[in-house]
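User: I'm putting together a teaching handout on how sequence relates to shape, and I'd like one worked example. Could you take Phosphatidylinositol 3-kinase VPS34 from Pyronema omphalodes, show the sequence you're using, and then write out its predicted structure as tokens right after it?

Assistant: Happy to. First the sequence, then the structure tokens directly below it.
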Amino acid sequence: MEPFTFATSRSLENPNVSIRIDTLEGTRTPLPFTTLLSSPELKHVGSNTSPSSDLYVTVTVWADSKPLTVPIQTSYKSFKTTRTWMEWLTLPVRYCDLPLSAQLAITIWDISGPLNTVPFGGTTVRLFERDNTLKKGRQKCKVWLGVEADGLSDSTTPSPCESGDEMDRLEKLVKKHELGEMPRSDHWLDNLVFREIERVNRQHSEKRKDEHFLFIDFPRWDFPIVYAELEYKAPGDKQLVPADAAVNGAPGARPANVVMNESTQEGKRVCFKVFDPEVVRDNPAESKHRRLVRSQRNGIVDRDLKPNAKIRDELNEILNYGPTHDLTSDEKDLIWKFRFYLTRDKRALTKFVKSVAWTDTAESKSAVQLIPKWTEIDVTDALELLGPNINNASVRAYAVDRLRAADDEELQLYLLQLVQALKFEAIRPDAEEDAVKESSLARFLIMRACDNPTLGSYFHWYLVVETDDPDAGRKKLYSKIAWEFQVALKKTSHGDETRGVMKRQSDFVFMIGEAAKEIQSMRDRTKKEDKLKQILRDPKSSLLDFEPIPLPLDPTVNVVGCVPEKAMVFKSSLFPILIHLKTDKGDLYPIIFKSGDDLRQDQLVIQIITLMDKLLRKENLDLKLMPYRILATSAFTGIVQFVQSMTLANIEEGKKTPAGVLPYLRSTFPDETQELGVKAEVMDTYVKSCAGYCVVTYLLGVGDRHLDNLLLTPDGHFFHADFGYILGRDPKWFAPMKLCKEMVDGMGGTNSANYQKFRSYCYTAYTTLRKSANLILNLFALMVDANIPDIRLEPDKAVLKVKERFMLELSEEQAIQHFRALIDDSMNSVLPVLIDRVHVIAQRWRK
């Protein structure tokens, strides 16, 4: 039997992608003269006046909804009867660099006046067939009239034009005949067949006279070209160098299954790794092996098994894996084999759950019986067991039982994620109202929220926001949970009072929203402020003075009214409003109310920063982070705590204060006895908070950092605001960490002792937070299905983006070296400085 001969796409290193634009078929009757008279601008479009107007074609390579090359176009050609180009175009990308999702966006352009063009039509052609082989030969592509080819993964201009009729079948046979994929008959018989095909084509063209088709040609290869990914040489492996692929019968070419080894001996056959679409399915042989290895008859033997030193090291390495690490089949079998031995190690439970084949009834039952015998796991690991990949109700119930060990303060730190985890519970949206009782997590959260008013207030608002979900099933689910929460409250001794408070909180937020809505129609900001003060001053508004209610943003604070004279409207495009609320202790609590803005992403970032602050303080490292509070009250409104501060942009301009961070701090808290003339406590706060925010914003990948969202309080607290871009996203060039010259100058420069302290704080904070990486990763894993913009873009990669920044594969010393390099790069890079200057100029121009 002859071996199957093919080449891989990686072996085509020299040729660039090429395509021949052949012919455009289809007729479109020019517009009537009366139509051109009524719309004179249409006469400039060539195809509106002539059935063979001059057109040109552009071709762009796309992949994963992104363009990979610039457009390449055909040369000018004047058409008389048929639109035929017969022109080869070479694109600026090689075949070996193409991803599997590569496709060509082909647009046909028509002239519509001087220096103006309009799309005649477009079509999108995939470069690889369904079997992952490169397309070759003649292709017939449907042209979607009047639109430009979009090149998206889910394209609206796909090229396939199959209608299922006889002509489609004949065209496929003709293509096989041209490529030599079917035996040829006698010459006279072929001619008879072709004449019959022409007759059928004429009938077919009458039926499709309004459709257009573009015929193109791809290079014809001597054998199939199979897609292959780049393979990297493993340490210690001998490298196999693929032979030159046979491209268009090039001299000296060899089949792809013949390679040279390191000693350049020719003729040795090796196997190439080729994509197998069935690799994701269960392997029957592996499934049989797993059932034999994990047979219940081995249970008695496994109970007494103890690993030797070598296996113990292997198990320890597996147990040190992070929550995002997938176990191999062998690792799962090893965990299962020594499951009884591992019950004494709390780290092993999450790995054991991953190793269980939950579809196997007997194995699932055995695993559920073993879990209660495990050493009690930490709350961090319990959160992992509530993720979207854990479907077993008993496992989730065990995780909830471990959460009971967390006090209310700790539970509040995770509450946002636990509310999201309710989506992964086995609650049917179409079930009866008491279906929530089937969820152990829902019952637990409702019970704890009923017992603690502060926890209950946050729980209530988190549920309110989720009831705005556009998905009807989720909206119904959270509405049921909110209803059950109200029913449970009613059964408590303080239930009526708590429910009354929640209603008054809702009325309070509604009234502020109505005030913000009433001033939106006014254009002048001064008039907006006057109107806002008038609304707040009106006794009928219910905002001037009222009975004490817990502030939804911070339920530990009771507010009793507002101060209309201090109200303000910001210059932002959405015109958020600032209101100073009066507390029952006589203090003022300023808040910002935003309407038309989804604050859930900012709320998540602040929650994670608050958690990181707690983790650092737990290690006796207080970096003065002082995260302000944010609460989303719906999908498009929210409340933000206002902190009296100035942006670094305003400080550098020096309009109201001395220009520069150091002169600003010197003017607010001077101390002539200190070297820099600033009070020691204030400088210490500034240095520590700069270090803290550099680390936490780096770990969260916060983007769009400029001097207008870096703020400083008079007592030295430095902090960030506006978290519209996270996880590495940035509308401009993205620097991994924001450390600008203005911040360092405030410490006294790079040669000062404060700057050295800053670097030391950064290293300590980074290495400390790396120890709690699993907790932070688990919290992000629970948010993958939330409506957070930057998570929703790539939910499967969100956790990995955070994990990359922890650099868990490095030792502590290597991690410090990594962060040292980050600081040096930030200080030496010129581009961020230039971007800050451009941003300042743009802001001045807008003003």
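A couple of points you could highlight for students: Residues 236-271 have pLDDT under 50 and may be disordered. The longest strand covers residues 83-94.
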